[in-house]
Design brief:
- It is a single chain.
- The protein has three domains: about 80 residues, no CATH class; about 55 residues; about 300 residues, Cathepsin B, Chain A.
- Helix content is about 20%, strand content about 20%.
- It is built from 13 helices and 17 strands.
- The strands form four sheets. Strands 9, 10, 11, 12, 13, 14, 15, 16 and 17 form a nine-stranded mixed sheet that branches.
- Helix 9 packs across helix 10.
- The structure holds 2-acetamido-2-deoxy-beta-D-glucopyranose (NAG) (5 copies).
- One 2-acetamido-2-deoxy-beta-D-glucopyranose binds next to loops.
- One of its GO terms (biological process) is proteolysis.
- Pfam families: Peptidase_C1.
- GO terms for molecular function: cysteine-type peptidase activity.
Length: about 450
């Protein structure tokens, strides 16, 4: 029953963390009654595996779900495991400043400011109201940026291997907002997970120790995008990987920026636009219908109307088709394939360019500023979501705790975030599941270009 984050808390001398462990907090799952726990049955002790997917995250059926500051119990945990109704779902007192001067019982103090009775004040992502007797009543949301986590990480870089930062655009937002609107990849379905990785014949020892697509194919690789408050990483990473591969295979003749908005707006039957999408379906949409370029259908970060017909004449929409394409042609790809392990992923990148990966994102990732990321386990919330990103290279670095292998990965939160929009993450250990579901696809480049360029066949 000893938690990792307790150990870290003690190791770094940050005991204040231990005292904030059990503010009651209700997750908003009440409109999804279940059955969840009823189906999987376990109820005792801490059992991290005892979880069920819910709204792009997981809920739990173990006794620990009620101990953390954020309650992530399944909706039917209380009735099924405890035989009782859930505790009331109201906000609770988070901060109390009792002012003993009777003259001043009509106000509260917040960060050395006076808040008068009935007035509201914003504390990060929580709204507080000054109630009678100088009590400040606050919401108890977990925020995207938790200054406590940021400062623990920054005071112990040798322990964590990376540094954290406060981002203006994330400050004041709830973790739920972050998970819903800054990620946007629905967990791969079982049949996709069981897709057999492709086999490649190569000598793993001949792989370079460092590799960066930008250096190998300068000018061909997509830059960093900002998905804004739209859960569209499924579309952005897919369009970017396809674009990079078009440029590489055509040796720059088709250095396109394919439209993620095309996917968000038009792949509507089976995806959920800004509320997330499945990668396998995104790839099969491009395979079936193709994409237009960014100039034709620029990114707006919301569910805009699909103004281009899937197979209509492109020139009517003032969009240019691919080189040598007819008026109806779109940028297409072949079937998506999965890569099985670290060295297979590396080999694939050296041969064909960036690949797409899906990772689990926890609260601390939003604050990443630089270094080699590993999930810190500091967060008291187990809330998490899936995010898809583009692996563009790798390397090794002597860091605080010896030699550390990493992936270099393009994120989609703008250039201000992380290392100029990129992040590095531990390689070879399946950190945050980033090596579990890596996929790529070959672009359908016109034969004339292909023949002119002698495309190597890596099968
Ligand atoms: C949270 O749950 C309450 C009660 O079921 C509901 O009224 C409210 O709309 C929910 N809020 C969100 C953001 O889903
Ligand atoms: C769940 O948490 C609440 C509030 O902290 C506490 O009153 C209650 O005893 C806990 N229940 C269990 C079963 O641990
Ligand atoms: C941060 O730590 C302080 C104590 O140092 C505590 O009062 C506060 O509630 C913590 N904030 C969060 C968001 O956990
Ligand atoms: C984080 O940034 C926001 C906006 O720039 C600022 O208002 C807030 O005080 C900062 N928080 C901390 C803990 O520095
Ligand atoms: C990865 O898988 C390939 C087979 O596809 C195998 O030859 C290779 O040894 C594996 N590498 C590692 C590091 O497991």
């Amino acid at each position: 029953m000893i938690r990792n984050w307790y150990l870290v808390g003690i190791a770094v001398g940050f005991t204040a963390f231990l005292s904030v462990s059990s503010l009651p907090y209700r997750d908003n799952f009440s409109d999804l009654p279940g059955p969840y726990c009823e189906n999987i049955g376990c109820c005792d002790e801490r059992q991290d595996s005892c979880s069920v997917p819910i709204m792009g995250t997981l809920c739990y059926c173990d006794d620990f779900c009620n101990y953390t500051r954020v309650d992530d119990c399944c909706p039917d945990y209380w009735s099924h495991c405890k035989g009782i109704l859930p505790p009331p779902t109201t906000t609770t007192i988070a901060t109390t400043t009792l002012n003993n001067d009777p003259q001043q019982l009509t106000s509260c103090t917040f960060q050395e400011r006076t808040i008068y009775l009935g007035n509201k004040v914003q504390d990060n992502c929580n709204e507080c109201i000054c109630e009678a007797e100088g009590k400040l009543l606050c919401d108890t949301n977990v925020c995207m940026i938790d200054p406590n986590i940021t400062s623990v990480i920054n005071r112990n870089p040798e322990l964590f291997g990376w540094t954290a930062s406060n981002y203006t655009e994330f400050w004041g937002r709830t973790l739920d907002d972050g998970i819903t609107f800054r990620l946007g990849t629905l967990p791969p379905q079982q049949f996709v997970m069981s897709m057999n990785p492709v086999r490649r014949i190569y000598d793993p020892n001949a792989l370079p120790r460092e590799f960066d697509c930008d250096a190998v194919w300068p000018g061909y690789i997509s830059g960093i995008q900002d998905q804004k408050w739209c859960g569209s990483s499924w579309a952005i990473s897919t369009a970017a990987v396809a674009s990079d591969r078009y440029a590489i295979v055509s040796k720059g003749k088709e250095a396109v920026h394919l439209s993620a908005q095309n996917l968000i707006s038009c792949d509507d039957k089976r995806e959920q636009s800004c509320s997330g999408g499945h990668l396998d379906r995104a790839w099969s949409f491009i395979r079936t219908y193709g994409l237009v370029d960014e100039d034709c259908f620029p990114y707006v970060g919301r569910n805009e109307n699909c103004f281009i017909k899937r197979q209509g004449n492109l020139l009517q929409s003032r969009c240019k088709p691919p080189l040598y394409g007819n008026r109806k042609a779109r940028y297409g790809v072949g079937p998506a394939y999965r890569l099985g392990n670290e060295s297979d992923i590396m080999y694939e990148i050296t041969r064909s360019g960036p690949v797409q990966a899906t990772m689990k994102v926890y609260q601390d990732f939003f604050t990443y500023n630089g270094g080699i990321y590993k999930h810190s386990d500091l967060t008291l919330s187990r809330r998490q979501g899936y995010h898809s990103v583009r692996i563009v290279g790798w390397g090794e670095e002597i860091s605080y705790n010896g030699e550390q292998k990493y992936w270099k990965v393009a994120n989609s939160w703008g250039r201000n975030w992380g290392e100029d929009g990129y992040f590095r993450i531990a390689r070879g250990t399946n950190e945050c599941e980033i090596e579990t579901f890596v996929i790529a696809s070959w672009p359908r480049v016109d034969r004339k270009i292909q023949l002119a360029n002698e495309i190597p066949n890596s099968e």
